[in-house]
Write a structure and sequence with these properties.
Keywords: Membrane, Transmembrane, Transmembrane helix. By secondary structure, the protein is an all-alpha fold. Helices cover 62% and strands 0% of the residues. The chain is rod-shaped, with a radius of gyration of 21 Å.
Length: 50
C-alpha cells in the first residue's frame, strides 16, 4: 500500500509553513471590512436617530 499524502502532517511534506501568510491576508481583508461595517453602523445610527 502506498501512504496517503492527504493525511500526512504539513511539516512532513517539505512545504513551507503558510500560517503567517494566511494570517496576514485575513488582516489585509478583515481590517478594512471591519472598519467599513463600523462606519456603516455608525452612519445608519445617525440616519435613524436624527
Amino acid at each position: 500500500m502506498s501512504p496517503d499524502r492527504s493525511q500526512s502532517p504539513p511539516d512532513a511534506t517539505g512545504t513551507p509553513d503558510r500560517r503567517p501568510l494566511i494570517a496576514f491576508t485575513w488582516l489585509w481583508v478583515g481590517a478594512p471590512l471591519a472598519y467599513g461595517l463600523y462606519e456603516l453602523v455608525r452612519k445608519a445610527t445617525q440616519l435613524f436617530t436624527g
